[in-house]
From TrEMBL:
SUPFAM superfamilies: P-loop containing nucleoside triphosphate hydrolases, TGS-like
Organism listed in the record: Gallibacter intestinalis
UniProt binding sites for ATP: 10-15
Gene: ychF
UniProt similarity note: Belongs to the TRAFAC class OBG-HflX-like GTPase superfamily. OBG GTPase family. YchF/OLA1 subfamily.
Keyword terms, alphabetized: ATP-binding, Magnesium, Metal-binding, Nucleotide-binding
Protein name: Ribosome-binding ATPase YchF
Cofactor: Mg(2+)
Length: 364
């Protein structure tokens, strides 16, 4: 899963990104870990893996991870090709979702590009660039559809939706905020519009507000706006995250407790990403390795198997599976679970659930 980090200059993107790369330093052994400088990998915390690891006395625990892309350099005028505009918009097209960092901290030493801190204005500046780029795409698509309509009247429906989306974007709102029926949604999704991508607004607050139970006024504004388009908000302090990222697990727990913070910002970010993208994890367990795998909720067994290896998907026969909680009722022992008849055999139409411990049987 790929998410892109965007935001105006000086809002804390690099600081957050540094925290991500440092926290993910150990992730060098993720099989899909890229070494590009603009990619950071964050492990998805999953306590179930540690428990399974103990039960199986496993050699290796492999967490699943989310990749974050640093898409710096998005500035006003990007859609007109200013700065390295088009290149950055292209990067956004490649990610599944966007983390939009918004400055919600006061600090007179740190200059704001527009001379004042105004989260809603910042959000609008970035969102408008994406909307402008989408409008151009829609213009081209509308022209093409109008031309083809002469030979194929069935395209009228598509043209209607294209015009509807165009009119909506012209009001300055993002496509993700539109009310659409299922068919329309399916079609709009296929257009690959930037402003249709799901967004998490990361409200970057100051160190002394990170533990605050109350949102500051700027965060409140961000929440209100996010609600109008069904987006998620997390409150983080990028600077603290950078410090936290250099600690080991034990030190981190102590540090957070001292500060009165329940959960680190990165953990919040990972959870929000899971929620936003409708992701779940299934597990595999054994002496060699206990491991979590990310899939989209609704994925069927063969495609889930394909996450492990394409041969598993091609040669899929069936899956032996048990829910993590059920397995724990048998003290984690697959043998006991088998004796009790709790291990189910599932076929190719089985929809994998979060926490399913899977064993795939396949033909080679
Ligand atoms: P970018 O341009 O969006 O990548 O912003 P940077 O991450 O470089 O941050 C710009 C400045 O803001 C740097 O001096 C950071 O140290 C500072 N900064 C980032 N996050 C925070 C924060 O949470 N609190 C404070 N006080 N400063 C921050």
């Amino acid at each position: 899963m790929k998410l892109g980090i965007v935001g105006l200059p000086n809002v804390g993107k690099s600081t957050l990104f540094n925290a991500i790369t440092k926290a993910g330093a150990e992730s060098a052994n993720y099989p899909f870990c890229t070494i590009e400088p603009n990619v950071g990998v964050v492990a998805v915390p999953d306590e179930r893996l540690n428990v399974l690891g103990k039960v199986y006395n496993t050699k290796k625990i492999v967490q699943t991870a989310i990749e974050f892309y640093d898409i710096a350099g998005l500035v006003k005028g990007a859609s007109k090709g200013e700065g390295l505009g088009n290149k950055f918009l292209g990067h956004i097209r490649e990610v599944e979702a966007i983390v939009h960092v918004v400055r919600c901290f006061e600090d007179s030493n740190i200059v704001h590009v527009d001379g004042k801190i105004d989260p809603l204005n910042d959000i609008e500046t970035i969102n408008l660039e994406l909307i402008f780029s989408d409008l151009e795409l829609l213009d081209r698509r509308i022209q093409k559809t109008q031309k083809n309509l002469k030979g194929d009247k069935s395209l009228q429906k598509e043209l209607d939706i294209l015009n509807k989306v165009h009119a909506f974007l012209e009001t300055g709102k993002s496509a993700r905020a539109m009310e659409l029926d299922d068919d329309e949604r399916e079609f709009v999704k296929s257009l690959d519009l930037l402003s249709f991508k799901p967004v998490i607004y990361a409200a970057n607050v100051s160190e002394d507000e990170a533990a605050g139970a109350e949102d500051n006024d700027m965060v409140k504004q961000v929440r209100e706006f996010a609600a109008t388009e069904g987006s998620d908000v997390i409150v983080i302090c990028a600077r603290l995250e950078e410090e936290i990222s250099q600690l080991d697990d034990e030190e981190k727990a102590m540090f957070l407790e001292e500060l009165g913070i329940k959960e680190s910002g990165l953990d919040k970010l990972v959870k929000a990403s899971y929620r936003l993208l409708n992701l779940i994890s299934f597990l595999t367990a054994g002496e060699q390795e206990c491991r979590a795998w990310t899939i989209i909720n609704g994925t069927k067994a063969p495609q889930a198997a394909g996450k492990i290896h394409s041969d598993f998907e091609k040669g899929f026969i069936r899956a032996e599976t048990i829910a993590y909680d059920k397995l724990m009722e048998c003290d984690g022992s697959l043998a006991t679970a088998r004796e009790k008849g709790l291990i189910r055999s599932e076929g190719k139409d089985y929809v994998v659930k979060d926490g399913d411990v899977m064993n795939f049987l396949f033909n080679v």
